[in-house]
Amino acid sequence: MGYDYALVHVKFTIPLAAALSVAARPLISRLDVARVVFISLVAVTATIPWDSYLIRTGVWTYPQDAVLGHTIYHIPVEELFFFFIQTYITALLYILCNKPMLHAQYLTTPSTRPSWISRRKLLGTVLLSSLTLMGGYFVAQNSDATYMGLILAWACPFALITWTLTGDMILAMPWTSTLAPIMIPTMYLWYVDELSLRSGTWSIEQGTKLGMTLFGSLELEEAVFFLVTNTLIVFGLAAFDKAVAVCDVFPELFPEPSDKLPLGALLRARVTPSSAYDMHRIAGLSEAVTRLQKKSRSFYLASSVFPGRLRIELTLLYSYCRLADDLVDNAASPAEALQWVSKLREYLNLRYNGSDAAVVRDFIRSNFEPSAWSALDLLPTHILSSEPLYSLLAGFETDMEFKATKSWPIDDESDLELYASRVASTIGELCLDLVFHHTPPDASRDVLYAAAKEMGVALQFVNIARDIAVDAQISRVYLPTTWLNEEGLSPEAVLLKPYGEPVERMRRRLLGKAFHMYRKSRRCMEWLPAEARGPMTVAVESYMEIGRVLSEGKSRSEGKATVPAWRRLGVVWRTLRSG
Predict the structure, then answer these.
(1) Closest CA to 487 of 473, 501, 477
(2) DSSP state of 561
(3) Where are its TM segments located (predicted)?
(4) Tens of pLDDT, residues 241-274
(5) Number of helices (H), then strands (E), in the chain
(6) Neighbours of 294 (CB within 10 A)
(7) The model's pTM
């Protein structure tokens, strides 16, 4: 009896698992727990017979004075714990690396898949098949390559199955979501294993190993073992996530979203052929994600903690709002901008008066550029109230007054609040429409909608305070003219010099009002449904952090104030942790 193997866990695996648990705890959802449980059960169940065989046949041994002496199927309990803790560590790292990812955008069909993905998937299939056969050959030879053969013959068939089912999505995903969660724990465990082999905590018997080392005392077989097992874990989680993505992105096929853990639906999603995928929807979602990434880093980061289907619907809503805003702002003339507003209003009329889908589609194709089609096609108007969408167009018309009439439409605070309510409170209302579609609130809807409207005004005030110089470049001044007069300024003066102490005083004044409204409505967010409370709070706090940066005097006259990435991540972590 000894404690050497147990001390490996005490010194190396448990501290890392604990650190990852603390880091991931605020971000973990019920679905993430299901991911970890699923992959842990699969990993431990698949590894026990294989490892038991290694020990019983003398390929792998543990000195009696290095282990506690308790075994299950001849496997020391410390080794069984290693199966679990390795899976747990890699799974948590995978979840953290994949939080920003919306996996549905990486779904493909054979006809839409880039040729390089098809080629590499075929290459991977050939490689894994060859390694499986090679492993079987090594085992049959009963030579120095026996242990390597047992590793390959056991692991590669599992890898081949998951690769066949999910390889296309794995290849389409960024390396930070796939390769990173494989290699980071692999290299760490290589280090731990090298120390253990050097100290004699465990060993590979002579005659069953190649006698080659990767570095130090790390046997080549052990290096391959940790690489392939972590690959299996990540491939298995990716297969799980593909089922989740299919379930969430196609509500007409799967009415219940994945965060409700509908096991039957997830199994059906797993076996749904790619020929059933609506690739127009997938392509539109990918375009929407790209818009979100480019135009709003704060909301993109916040969106990553929403449940899958709600996240998709919010992304599609944002894509429409961003498209509409860009059509108006990028118009060559006020007349063209008015035409876009008129077309958008007619689009809403068609969507909300029950027009046939073909009629709506023809209108979109006839009046908008192809780059706008998906955002208009996929707006979930069957869930969204119509009034906020029409009010948003009224806000755009206020924007146009700066050029069309060469006037200053924001005369006083009431004009400012009306404008903010049209372009921002409306978004808050629409977000709640989506949230309540999935989960009814415990509190009064009227109270929550009122709080959302007020919070929307607060966020827009922050936006205006941030963009004084940027807006001046396009001949817009959203600071009330009455405020400017109090400072002895005019809108024209701000256009010429959108910085200086008078402007900073008005910026602070606007931020003061923003934070006052924020504090009034913030407490109501505690009454939101649990599934949306944390993510919605993250979205608000991520944007209000811009206001805090401005309040610290870190605005920039030449452009927008920015929040460093580490600070944005800190906001997300603290907000979810406190919630």
Answers:
(1) 501
(2) -
(3) 6-24, 36-55, 80-97, 122-140, 146-165, 172-191
(4) 999 999 999 999 999 999 988 889 999 999 999 9
(5) 25, 6
(6) 10
(7) 0.90
